[in-house]
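Good morning,

Attaching, inline, the backbone tokens for the sequence recovery test we're adding to the shared suite. The designed sequence is right after.
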């Protein structure tokens, strides 16, 4: 069981680690509001990973089929949400950016927004289905083994977001307002790029 947990933890870590829109968003929020909000944002991604991991681990065929059928609408919603976040970052005025930095960020919206964004990536569910089917030998797991795998995925993903938020937070106070504005604009442009790529794939 310890080996199963370790394998699942590494899966969660490896899926969370590549830098993408969620990573950029967590970095930007950590710089703007501190490690706590950055980590909570990352936990939203970890929770979404655990949800998709449960589908793969327990072989929930009907639910899995339902999500696969929703791949296109989910990708469309995720792409539009990314575009909105990117535009919001690009259009933030200096006064708005300063006020945002001073105001305490709320944990629930930070968690929920990244949770929804991660659910909107259809590649996530397909990746987990394939990986968990391989680990489970093509059969659905039940009881303790399935829970261990899902917990391992969540812990691995959460471990990555904890390390990222703490690492970014360590340099946060070395950045002045001009650097933060540049980071916000760069993150916004990158999020728009990810959104355009995702929407272009749907239109192809």
């Amino acid at each position: 069981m310890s080996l199963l947990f370790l394998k699942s933890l590494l899966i969660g870590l490896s899926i969370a680690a590549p830098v993408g829109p969620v990573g950029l968003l967590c970095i930007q929020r950590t710089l703007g509001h501190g490690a706590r909000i950055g980590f909570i944002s990352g936990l939203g991604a970890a929770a979404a990973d655990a949800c998709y991991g449960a589908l793969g681990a327990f072989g929930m065929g009907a639910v899995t089929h339902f999500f696969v059928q929703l791949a296109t609408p989910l990708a469309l919603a995720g792409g539009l949400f990314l575009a909105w976040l990117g535009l919001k970052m690009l259009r933030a005025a200096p006064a708005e950016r300063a006020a945002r930095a001073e105001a305490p960020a709320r944990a629930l919206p930070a968690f929920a927004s990244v949770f929804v964004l991660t659910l909107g990536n259809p590649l996530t569910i397909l990746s987990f289905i394939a990986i968990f089917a391989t680990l489970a030998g093509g059969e659905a797991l039940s009881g303790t083994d399935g829970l261990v795998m899902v917990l391992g995925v969540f812990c691995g993903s959460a471990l990555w977001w904890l390390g990222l938020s703490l690492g970014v937070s360590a340099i946060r106070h070395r950045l002045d307002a001009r650097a933060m504005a540049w980071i916000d604009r760069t993150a916004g442009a990158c999020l728009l790029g990810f959104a355009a790529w995702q929407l272009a794939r749907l239109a192809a």
